[in-house]
Design a protein that fits this description.
heterodimer, A: 367 residues, alpha+beta, six-stranded mixed sheet, six-stranded antiparallel sheet, 24% helix, elongated, B: 287 residues, mainly alpha, MetI-like fold, 2 domains, 14 helices, 69% helix
Chain lengths: 367, 287
């Protein structure tokens, strides 16, 4: 068990003008579960592979514990990896698959057998130890891949989208199992996923990447409540946060004729326009006609809640009143009294749940 | 015919079954003809076709004298042994080296990798005949002085067989899931261990296919055997050719000899065919 440190770690593929991972700086604590998340091509898998030693580090350092592993080969890093496609050895039994690394390391047979059986018990694989991977279901193969990592008791677990090949139900189930297993074993874990729900539910901390650059690294709660920039705000949360251009007025931000109160100090540096973000659940229906007018296009009734998919006019310039055209708008309302399709409703953001971003840089303004 | 299901779940097709049976029979007929003729007397074989024996088995003079003739005549027995002594190493050696090379070309990075591979592909199109004179010089008394010995022929077959083998094996290995090799790396395997424990077992279908090809080619080879082996070391095929006199005498022995000579390749084929299965990597990765 150990800490993991990315110190300005950079990976640039030959022939590619932009680095795939650009000066990544993260410190992962001992026993922490860190999730890399981001859209495809954001460099999350590359970062993981750099830590595994499968990808060269062109600049910067990577440390496991106090050990600089930047130029060490994978086998000297004491890490175990679970691959997206499991990468089981097809001609070996489950037991041989799980014990392979120990066998290569020259651990004696009795000890291997013991550790494999322990891991198999944890993962409910005991009845399948003598089977070949091809005789297993997808979920069982996934568990064998996990078992292969556990048996080694490495300093760091690396997982590269280990759940993306499972069906939806099994994925949710396994998600919980992996998270609780990690807590129990207490092994530092770095996990890569493109699924932000997975990231939010599993991670102690979540690191959002975009185009090889770390956008924010925080606890899921903090990430959700205080997105550092427009990208994180739009990426984390489902349905996504409503983001729109709005003009700065006295005492707040003008949105579709409605003034959303925002601290004056915060707006000082913002200029004339800002990007305003409100989560769908932070909106309330207003009865008195004040608030943001939204034309309802679709109502998704989920029982307890209903999601309204609609659009609103955004005002670009307060002075001229010129509109920037309709922008999509999503709101969560009480599922028992959803509005009709085609009607115009007025929504008010709950106070203190409004996010304001600089219109140019996309950085968060204020707290 | 009931439309039952095949092993892989597809419905059985009566048409393809009939076609396969007909083709199999058609392909077997020459071998059956050879077998029957080899048991007929010289006069019979000279005057009528082998199928007459099939329709009139009692009126045929069955004889095993052809086989006796083959075994007693020249040193057919030792030629048979020579063939095995030549064919087995001449199959194993090129595959050994080619598999190592294919692994390196597939999974390792080294300078000029592409150029080397291109050279090997280029060698594929060079005819063997071109190399005979330089090889006779190289292996003969003026060079290594091993011409005429087994070693010379092993080397030649290794040299001529390897380019195709490297090419085939590399193509096969590049279809193996790359994550398995990466997983092995993380599990602490050296290249040597990765090759022996993972890549070689997973490449068995390709290795078996090439082993069969190479064995057949070496076993049936006359050109290299004639040119580079002294008569003590002659192979079955060379011996077969010698059975036939210049005036066509010994024709009846030829059929018996030919039948003896195909037994070993058949054994090789049937023992290797079970390795030539698809789906050797199934279950490794999620499709």
């Amino acid at each position: 068990m150990a800490t993991v440190t990315f110190d300005n770690a950079t990976r640039q593929y030959p022939g590619n003008p932009v680095p795939s991972v650009d000066k990544l700086n993260i410190e992962i604590e001992d026993g922490e579960f860190l999730v890399f998340v981001g859209p495809s091509g954001c460099g999350k898998s590359t970062s993981l592979r750099m830590l595994a030693g499968l990808e060269e580090v062109n600049a910067g350092r990577i440390l496991i514990g106090d050990r600089d592993v930047t130029n060490l080969s994978p086998k000297d890093r004491d890490v175990a990896m679970v691959f997206q496609n499991y990468a089981l050895y097809p001609h070996m039994t489950v037991a041989d698959n799980m014990g392979f690394a120990l066998k290569i390391a020259g651990v004696d047979k009795g000890e291997i057998r013991k550790r494999v059986e322990e891991a198999a018990k944890i993962l409910d694989l005991s009845p399948y130890l003598d089977r070949k991977p091809k005789a297993l279901s997808g979920g069982q193969r996934q568990r064998v891949a996990m078992g292969r990592a556990i048996v080694r008791s490495p300093q760091v677990f690396l997982m590269d989208e280990p759940l993306s090949n499972l069906d939806a139900k099994l994925r949710v189930q396994t998600r919980t199992q992996i998270a609780s297993l990690q807590r129990r074993l207490g092994v530092t874990t770095v996990y890569v996923t493109h699924d932000q729900v997975e990231a939010m539910t599993m991670g102690d901390r979540v690191a959002v990447l975009k185009d090889g650059i770390l956008m924010q690294c925080d606890s899921p709660r903090r990430m959700y409540d205080h997105p550092q920039n427009v990208f994180v705000a739009g990426f984390i949360g489902s349905p996504a946060m409503n983001l729109m251009e709005a003009s700065v007025t006295d005492g707040g931000v003008n949105l579709g004729g409605h003034t959303v109160p925002v601290e004056r100090d915060a707006l000082k540096s913002a200029g004339k326009n800002v990007t305003l973000g409100v989560r769908p659940e932070d909106l309330e229906l207003s009865d008195d006609g004040s608030g943001i007018p939204v034309t309802v296009d679709v109502v998704e009734e989920l029982g307890a809640d209903a999601y309204i998919y609609g659009s609103t006019e955004q005002k670009l310039l307060a002075s001229t009143g010129e509109t920037g055209g309709p922008v999509p708008f999503i709101a969560r309302v009480d599922g028992r009294r959803p509005p009709e399709k085609g009607t115009v409703i007025h929504l008010k953001p709950k106070s203190g749940h409004v996010h304001v971003f600089n219109a140019d840089s996309g950085e968060r303004i204020g707290d | 015919m009931a439309r039952s299901l095949m092993k892989d779940g597809r419905p059985r097709s009566p048409f393809s079954i009939v076609t396969m049976v007909v083709l199999a029979l058609l392909w077997t007929i020459p071998t059956v003809g050879l077998l029957i003729t080899s048991f007929r007397s010289r006069d019979d074989a000279a005057t009528s076709g082998w199928w007459t024996a099939l329709f009139n088995p009692l009126g045929t003079q069955w004889t095993t004298s052809n086989y006796q003739g083959v075994w007693s005549g020249q040193d057919f027995g030792s030629a048979f042994l020579n063939s095995i002594v030549i064919a087995v190493p001449a199959t194993i050696i090129p595959i050994m080296f080619a598999a190592f090379a294919a692994y390196a070309f597939t999974f390792m990075n080294f300078p000029l990798k592409e150029l080397f591979f291109l050279l090997i592909i280029a060698v594929l199109v060079v005819p063997i005949q071109v190399a005979f004179q330089p090889m006779l010089n190289f292996l003969g008394p003026r060079g290594l002085g091993i011409s005429g010995q087994y070693m010379a022929v092993w080397l030649l077959h290794t040299g001529f067989g390897m380019p195709l083998c490297i090419y085939m094996l590399r193509n096969y290995m590049s279809t193996l899931p790359r994550t398995i090799i990466e997983s092995a790396k993380i599990d602490g395997c050296s290249h040597y261990q990765t090759f022996w424990r993972l890549v070689a077992p997973m490449s068995m279908p390709a290795i078996a296919a090439f082993a069969t090809l190479q064995f057949l080619w070496v076993w049936n080879d006359l050109l290299i055997a004639k040119l580079f082996l002294k008569s003590d070391n002659a192979t079955v095929i060379v011996a077969l050719q010698k059975l036939l006199g210049t005036q066509g005498q010994g024709q009846e022995l030829l059929t018996a000899g030919a039948f003896i000579s195909i037994i070993v390749p058949m054994i090789v084929f049937f023992s290797l065919q079970r390795f030539m299965v698809r789906g050797m990597t199934s279950g490794a990765v999620k499709g």
